[in-house]
Batch of 2 targets.
Target 1
Amino acid sequence: MTKRAVAVLGRGVVESDAEVLSSDDLGLTRGDGCFEATRVVTGADGSHRIDHLPEHLARFQHSSHALGLPDVDVTAWQELVRTVLGAWDVPGEATLKLMITRGRESAPSGPITGIATVTPLAERSLRQRRDGVSVITLARGTSSDAYAAAPWLLGGVKTLSYAINVAAGRFAEAHGADDVLFTTTDGYVLEAPTAAVVWLSDARLHTTPTGATGILDSITQKALFAAAEASGFPTRYALASRDELLTTDGVWLVSSGRGPARIHTLDGIQLPHTPGLSDRIRAFTGF
Amino acid sequence: MTKRAVAVLGRGVVESDAEVLSSDDLGLTRGDGCFEATRVVTGADGSHRIDHLPEHLARFQHSSHALGLPDVDVTAWQELVRTVLGAWDVPGEATLKLMITRGRESAPSGPITGIATVTPLAERSLRQRRDGVSVITLARGTSSDAYAAAPWLLGGVKTLSYAINVAAGRFAEAHGADDVLFTTTDGYVLEAPTAAVVWLSDARLHTTPTGATGILDSITQKALFAAAEASGFPTRYALASRDELLTTDGVWLVSSGRGPARIHTLDGIQLPHTPGLSDRIRAFTGF
């Protein structure tokens, strides 16, 4: 077992192996809840630097609203984050995860369940950030406008119902790839199961638009675009096919734990590599 | 709080409010697992009659395989069912629920988590079985062949990732309807969030085919069709549009807890009602 720190809303720090969820918690029985995950860097002196916490709490709020859950009590969650980090002193990179579930099925007017955990960033993530990833495209089954005016499909909502995302990852692994790029029925790339896709073409950084596509509004991608624009590097939201990606100057999967990971191979085809480019993308995202 | 009975695989009966899941259980963090639910009828003498347990355990096995989980140990689960029912003596109808999760993220080679619960059948379900339901159609975002050759989309797998199903139910409730009928992008009806759809036309019972549509293989629908065929009542698997349903002789949502519930209103349009027909459907399904 790796070292972990765990804190429960309204309860504080608990033992990392503690059982914290009832058998009828809707987070378990229905995947009915939402989460956020971001990176925490802990110094040798035990100090913590959390990436983009306000943005993650804002997206947490958005997910909660979309699920008809009560308002996220931002002050209480900031306090819970301080509490769980008070129990974490492992130097290096870790993942801070925040989870809300609708609470217990047998207590419909009872409280939500709130949990914060800290775990060391996986070796595999650090390696993929450094060396890049091989990716296969997999159909997501939906068109690029499937989520327009269909709030019940929970487009852009970071729910706990990630079974398809993990199944796609397992499928990729079984086929010798590191990760997946989901595609629409009308032929565009969407996102990876736990990362956004960003590409460089025409001296401009691009990513898939959110909204009707149903993809998650990526905090790492937005931080990257903001830093790029601030450096005079233009950015753009656009739909692109897999074949278009093959002729760009670089493609990356970006997420808050692993950071940016260059796609070196897409569906078995090696992508062009401009030395130094990934360093720049990493610098833009603070990795 | 309603009375509940809870048992955990490898542990036995636990207190019904007991916390049984760690904060990094993949059932919580990813909705990564599967479940089954069926009806148990408890007699005044405390005896139990479980509906279609072998069929539910077979579908549990199918879901586990599709998720790359270990084989369901049928003997152990039969024993767990006996154990949890040993703690249940409330006369009347209840729901027996079985859940498997991939276990703890921090223990990749550790055991799965297995939980069995018994809860009284909701008043609302009994009422809807008796009085029928008003239903609205909602787009599922996928075509009728979206799940063909795409195992990572987990078509036909009863996963714990039900956030869209419950969100659709909430959307219906907010719009004054009792339930939802999902539709494909090419205009066919699929299933309800937790029930199959069955309709009577041309003196034949129909339902949506499984497989490429991605819908769940309904045990209640199959029991209904088997009983109907045995009574000389023909059945058929076919795609139908919502408009086709409006001119049938009857439409029902069938599931293992609520049983069959006639759709009396579809998208605000009253459906024809042949007295006695729902009684026959209930008899065919054993409700």
Note: Chain A touches chain B through 65 residues (CB under 8 Å).
Target 2
Amino acid sequence: MERHKEKMEMLTFKADVKDIDSGEFFVTLNNKDAEEMGLLEHDRVKVSKEGKSITAIVQKSMSLVKPHNVTILTRGAMALDVKNGDDVLISPTGKPRSVGIIKAKMDGKTLTSEEMRIVVNDIVERRLSYIELTAYVVANYINGMNMQEIKDLTLAMVETGETIDFATGPIFDFHSVGGSPGNKVTLIVVPIIMAAGLIIPKTSSRAISSACGTADILETICNVTLSTEEIKSITQKIGGTIAWGGGVELAPADDLIIHVEYPLGIDPYGQLLASVMAKKKAVGANYMLLDIPMGPGTKVPDEKLARRYARDFIELGEMLGIKVECAITYGGQPVGHGIGPAIEAREALAILEGSTTPNSVVMKSTHLAGIILEMAGLTNRGQEMAMDILRSGKALEKFRLILKHQCWISITGRIFEPAWT
Amino acid sequence: MERHKEKMEMLTFKADVKDIDSGEFFVTLNNKDAEEMGLLEHDRVKVSKEGKSITAIVQKSMSLVKPHNVTILTRGAMALDVKNGDDVLISPTGKPRSVGIIKAKMDGKTLTSEEMRIVVNDIVERRLSYIELTAYVVANYINGMNMQEIKDLTLAMVETGETIDFATGPIFDFHSVGGSPGNKVTLIVVPIIMAAGLIIPKTSSRAISSACGTADILETICNVTLSTEEIKSITQKIGGTIAWGGGVELAPADDLIIHVEYPLGIDPYGQLLASVMAKKKAVGANYMLLDIPMGPGTKVPDEKLARRYARDFIELGEMLGIKVECAITYGGQPVGHGIGPAIEAREALAILEGSTTPNSVVMKSTHLAGIILEMAGLTNRGQEMAMDILRSGKALEKFRLILKHQCWISITGRIFEPAWT
């Protein structure tokens, strides 16, 4: 950083926008300009235009970029609202503060709330290169995080993203640790909860390690990409949603962190807890049920690990003001018959429409929904109540409302008549 | 990897060479081509042309790259000898084997010789993304390496680089841990050793943490960028060289690893040992003297650490067949008066020409040179012998030969007459 001190001026460059997406914010400067500004490769610059600014990592080129020009890739250009030929201002900027904090984490130190906030903020503002972001993730993976750090990480992820504030409450939520094939229960659990008059703004993920996630299943029959505004208004109107979590900016740090976890095949335990709970906290959940599918071949092979998950989620929930209950379910074989988005959607729909098979799906769905109904204090025989709601057709009604409100067809004003009814 | 299996075909693309250097091997494909080949961002492809091939990381673009075209950056284009408009073959390739090995290292496992060889080979072949390379470096930093791993790493780094095989021996070498300002002693030590009739093909580094490295100092008066062939032939002719280590491909894995260590400000201990010794092993050193400048503000603040360095370097040397001796010197204040490349070159030269000041530089140089003379069995009063050689002007003679042979002036055939004689 020292070497930048003498040359902190801000210079004007002509933008050359290139449609490449490399994940990071890169800008390419002519070697001569870079030298004059005292910039080496991998140094950072602040690029700004009319009040908007990004921090980008410098690449250099002798011939591709003319002096006083700068190449900006798609992602950066969109963030700055810059078009080809526009003028942008560039000034050198030092290393972000979080680099020293990441070093401390590598050295085995425990991070403070403030340090965690700085790191997460730099991640979301894309001030960290992949090298630095990877160092953070690997340090967390190897050295671990204590509960206070996990709580701080969760809150920092909530603070740096969008949140939904429902005027009424309480808000219920449901999450499955996943890793168990055929797990289409969310499509049945959520409408049962809604039919009981409870509020459940559920966000779901796409496939990570299994054949498909809830978002993939539901997407075969309706739109799942909702904005936070849409999740809020649909939930206020009908009591719930099943949206794709990646389509909203709830805890955006998480998506960026996953980007480096995925190629390494690691999912640091503390990060996993924080990821799940940040998204629950962001929608203002007061109660949450965690489904932990346990069994050979799942993420949770044995009861010892299942109990650790349960204990830690409950403890973290308490620290965040969310009452968590956990259901350890058997995940050693597929739930139901179908595996794959379309076939799982059909299976879930048939059950909502009255089918009593596959029994495993009916039993698991009503079991889980029953726990939530009990958490809400509506009954102390949850599964029975859930079964009654399912058999009455009221869950089907709620599911159809979900389809109607989430489908683009509804947006066009046309009456929604799914082809399969 | 699974998903590539069905689509392992090799397709022809027209190369669009872009002069950008981003450190990694990147290629950009049109979204449509990438989709057809089952490629996601950050997947790897093998790019080949007439027998040459590289492994590159995929970026995608909707508009910048036309279908059946591929953008290749400078570094990749040079490696493949590809020009704009040339045809290249591209086929998907799975994750390199080292990714699983790096995961094992993160999990605290000890790597085998074979695993270390696979990792270093993938680094040198640039098969690893920065994410993966960073994970390797951070895992080594946090979990450490045992001596066997350090030995395996050293040998793997030697194997993947160039080596110099001198027909005669023994070969002597000298290394300073560095971090002590004003440390121009190499410029005096090496010619003294050469004047004693010993062989010392010394490679030196540029500044990392201090104002200048030996290569920076010598470069103010002569060329230091030599090929391995040049180091070999000059050494065979005059007994030694002082070349820039970064100019040759001795242990190239090291340079790539430094690229991710530098922005994080870490230098894993085992990596440091392996880096130094790999370069010594690559020039076939039989004897090596290690100077460990100790004192506040240096890399080695106290005697405990100095002794650890000494012990570990000696042990690693034994494992590699290099006899190592260590001199713990006082590094708490600058050696001599001048700090900075040109002024340090002048100071060293003045001493070679007969100046007895600064006394600290004269004493340190002859002390270190003396140890090497004793290691060679030429005397048991090394410092006295070194002082005699220095005073006799024979070291100056050797230094002038170094200048003559390394300078581009000598290559042109013109008589070398430095301006300052």
Note: Chain A touches chain B at residues 18-23, 26, 28, 41-42, 59-64, 71, 95, 99, 102-103, 106, 108, 129-132, 134-135, 138-139, 141-143, 260, 263-266 (CB under 8 Å).
